[in-house]
Design goal:
Chain lengths: 355, 355
């Protein structure tokens, strides 16, 4: 089984190194090959997603991804900026189903912005469609307005769009995931304003007919942003489009207080997947050896389960992470009085030891 | 001075009645005329925004609006649904500047989902552009896809767009508002993905050159949704487009724990304005006499200040609301141990008495 290892920028190299270390002690036939991506790839090859990196990713069973981005690339033309690498990988590999769990770890309840009783035991799964919507819709660009409020003025525009098969396949993913959990799906839309999301809602209702054992609820995106704050535990599986999912999954993961702990998976229809932490490249703490590697280590566990048919190894990693937390090890982002502050490498070592 | 009073649906009639009562004791030359809107107007005239209501709104100096919507209208064709009234008023009156304060009242800190130290003293002003973006962009509709991932499939689409003058005028509004407050503006965009919001960012930077005394910060919308949870007090004025503003302003108002207290204003370039509470029509508690009228009463105060040149009367109302809270009166939504639970009418009476 072949894993493409793409550490990227900022803390990416540090956290991915720990996940690789963990994978190596598992005694599984894993072939890992590393390649540059994002700003690091731009520095070396003049492009955030060089052909060699893309080909490696395509040929692998799974991709272990760190993070990309740094302020120093803000001035580059858009196609050369680090985040284009992640958009390019999603598009070229057809990674349409993004799984973002928002879990509040028992020992980390206090780290949440929310009151403990609102987040203790929180376990939401946000499923974000990842290859459609306004992220990729054409046409887009700049032009002179011919109508609207200021005809003749310069304007910029983008196209939001979803086709029936795109909505159907992500709806199936959500209903099937709900069957493994609380059997409830909240489909988030803006059907009261957008044609795209009225259609989204209509198609989700049709697909739901095949899942009578799963409860389906519809919620407007503005209300969802509120309910996540008001009563996050009322959600089980949330399914939504690319743009709304971008916003709500980040909101939800920050609510848990443990964004440094949250993995994510992006899958295509062949179960090939890209696995990355939910947090970003954090250039402000890069190189200091203090980043939390657990989200990346848990992403490696998701990878073993979803793409590499090694669910037992995934379980072992997850238990190891739990025992490390129980033993009181904490990187600075999740540290609190009475626990032991450790760095990136020590945390990785602790997980290896627990294995 | 003429006020169009549009109570609407659900709790709308109850809360607007209290605001009208408050306005009446001010001893100002206010002419108030009432008209149906939303579902109530659909029942009477077959349309959520009948011509008579629209004309009244156009001819008034200001509109006092309750709320619209009820599940029972969900099956209607979209142009007949209650929320079309509010979209129609925004469009026909050109109400492009939406002011949504997110304030955490001292006595209500405990009602927030967030830990007290994160919200005590919170005072953010979200300025949402309200007549552009994907809400009104053409073309939109359904069609057969000619390109994209599934050519030949049914698809639905919408157009996001902003022209230079639309961005310029809302940027001026934000910078000017910041001058009255903390002199900091956070412009929220998604410039890393959307052409529309790269243009937004470029134009906001240009306008900023005229406000060297105001600090300007740019933030991606997903990050903004996180930072609102993590450190809401780091914001002063937030300016963003119609769609992102819809989501973030609801998130921010729910963070305060006092959404039943938060007013809003939507202004055009002639300072004509629509004033409404930030919360919705709450059909589940309609007719029970328990809705909180304070957001609507505070909206009336904003109306006096922004559209009716009566800032002293506005101050008086705001002080009266504060003293009523200090005296311990609470509607059920903000009630806590040790305070006195009152209904909608008693709360209105208490404000009148305090005046
Ligand atoms: C970097 C950016 C393009 C990306 C997105 O918007 O999808 C990121 O925010 C994410 O959620 O993975
Ligand atoms: C009712 C709906 C059309 C409206 C909007 O999306 O603008 C509402 O959510 C609001 O924020 O006033």
């Amino acid at each position: 089984m072949k894993i493409a290892v793409l550490p990227g920028d900022g803390i990416g190299t540090e956290i991915v190194a720990e996940a690789v270390k963990v994978l190596q002690v598992l005694d599984l036939p894993l072939e890992m090959e590393q390649a540059p991506v994002g700003g690091a790839a731009y520095e070396l090859h003049g492009h955030p997603l060089p052909e060699g990196t893309l080909n490696l990713a395509k040929s692998a069973d799974a991709i272990l991804f760190g993070a990309v981005g740094d302020w120093k690339y803000d001035k580059l033309d858009r196609p050369l900026r680090p985040e284009q690498a992640i958009l390019g990988l999603r598009k070229h590999l057809g990674l349409f189903a993004n799984f973002r769990p928002a879990i509040c770890y028992e020992q980390l309840v206090g780290a949440s912005s929310l009151k403990p009783e609102l987040v203790a035991g929180l376990d939401i799964l946000i499923i974000r469609e990842l290859t459609g919507d306004i992220y990729f819709g054409q046409p887009r660009g700049r032009r002179t307005a011919v109508d609207g409020l200021f005809p003749g003025a310069d304007e910029a525009f983008d196209t939001m769009r979803y086709s029936r098969p795109e909505i159907e396949r992500i709806a199936h993913v959500a209903f099937q995931a709900a069957r493994q959990r609380g059997r409830k799906v909240t489909s988030v839309d803006k059907a009261n304003v957008l044609e795209t999301f009225q259609f989204w809602k209509d198609v989700v209702i049709e697909v739901h007919a095949q899942y009578p054992d799963v409860e389906l609820q519809h919620m407007y995106v503005d209300n969802a942003a509120m309910q996540l704050v008001k009563s996050p535990k009322s959600f089980d599986v949330v399914v939504t489009g690319n743009m709304f999912g971008d916003i709500l999954s980040d909101e939800a993961s920050m609510l848990t207080g443990s964004i440094g702990m949250l993995p994510s998976a992006s899958l295509n229809d062949r179960k090939q997947g890209l696995y990355e932490p939910s947090h970003g490249s954090a250039p402000d703490i890069a190189g200091k050896g203090i980043a939390n590697p657990l989200a990346t280590i848990l992403s490696a566990a998701m990878m073993l389960r979803f793409s590499l048919q090694a669910p037992e190894a995934a379980d072992r990693i997850e238990s190891a992470v739990k025992s490390v937390l129980a033993a009181g090890y904490r990187t600075p982002d999740i540290w609190s009085e009475g626990t032991q502050k450790v760095g990136t490498r020590e945390m990785g070592d602790a997980v290896v030891a627990a294995l």
